[in-house]
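Aim 2, interim progress: modelling of the nicotinamide-adenine-dinucleotide-bound target.
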Amino acid sequence: MTSLAHFEAIAGSMNLPGKAIINGKAAAARSGKTFDNITPRNGQVINAVAECDAADIEDAVAAARTAFDTGSWRKLSYGRKKKLMFALADLMEKHAEKFAVLESLDVGKPIDNALKADIPGSIKTLRYYAEALDKVYGEVGPETNDRMSFAVHEPLGVIGIIVPWNFPLLMTMWKVAPAIAMGNSVVIKPAEQSPLTALFLGELALEAGFPPGVINVVPGFGATAGKALALHNDVDMIAFTGSGNVGKLLMQYSGQSNLKRVSLELGGKSPQIVFADCPDVRAAAEHAAWGIFYNQGEVCTAGSRLLVDETIADAFTESLLDVAKKIVPGDPLEPKTNFGAMVSAEQMNTALRYIDTAKREGAKLCLGGHRTRVDSGGFYVEPTVFGGVKPDATLSREEVFGPVLAITKFKTPEEALRLANDTVYGLAAGLWTKDISLAHRAARELRAGLVWVNGWDSCDITIPFGGFKQSGFGRDRSLHALHKYADLKSISITLR
Ligand code: NAD
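Predicted structure of the complex, ligand included:
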């Protein structure tokens, strides 16, 4: 059944979600405005989505606040909260193919990736935090004769969740699940390029029986809806994934309003280091290729800088190109496609501009470099590899957020580590070596929140995710994420 026709039929049969979910109801924007939602698959408008702004944010925050203050969710028993979260996960599973089609249409992601990674990953995340919510313990202070003290975790209140378009549902769920597990209410502002799965999630949350106002979804643009949410005095925290520029604005908005907490998952320019004693060149080449080309390179942890020991650089590059040549852009809804469209014309043009800059700055184009599938009307860029990229070149320093790999040679492990750390970012890093001491030393030296040895992106919901330096602060995933959405309250009882 898994054919292009099958997924096109699902798309054709669905009423694509376009209304906000505020206070337990689907709603048009107060202004009545909508915006065109374009699929990068073929550049066509697929539906009209409510263009919410400050007025709708006002409604959603008020609903979230009321839900929090009345305790309609916060005060439910652990068992009841779990039951609702599991009910939502079950509904998501029931509609997994629909979610995958929505995600693929909205952002150009291969349907196979959505079916195997994004959607099951989101469901797993929801279940993980549902299971965890009654395993968060407070602390009892040291005993004294006349006082008993303890610290408890209190939910923060209203959490504004602002997410990007590259893994729309997964990024949303990494924040929604731990936030509600701790008893908070949420207002989700999906990216304007990818509102569909968040809106569908909001619809299903109502079907699952979540009380009104606990999970609100407000689609709209960053400069209007997003800014209004981040400036709102009744929002206790903004949990954000997106670009560094917007991350910096969010901290300003916090200072201009109520000093709300801000957690930031931002961009990267992540290095993959291949030392001379790489244990398996073919496997490393596969990981290096997919480390940059997965999801069309639109991945915050994309391994966009490949640093290779000069003694094996030529053989390694050949092996990598051999893998990369077989990665051919295709229709995202076709199940065999493993490399789809870029999210928008704007993002495609950004990638093409970086390719031009790399050529101008003297890097050697080894593969790709062009827009492709132009007749489809969609936004497709070939997997692109540049060799001989200088450490100070634009391609070594700036995040492309597209399928463009920069290869740089090094002479010694010390030089490799220096180059790897020579970036304002610090999200992920990888290294390949047989030498266990070098692996340990290098893993500790690398200034990155995630380090992978002899693999790439080899971790899951159980392991914290987040960056150092300008890749942000705060962690998604794992039990640590729960504490991000809570404050410690210290209670002392005088014993008389
Ligand atoms: P973006 O920062 O442009 O947009 C992200 C979100 O912020 C969108 O919902 C947008 O509407 C909103 N926004 C924009 N301007 C705003 C404003 N003034 N106030 C409030 N909200 C505003 O990022 P993008 O282009 O959607 O995503 C790409 C970026 O996200 C890349 O830098 C990428 O590395 C990063 N990213 C990071 C992670 C991570 O976990 N570290 C994961 C995915 C993407």
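The chain has two domains: 4-266+472-490, 271-460. The longest helix spans residues 111-132.
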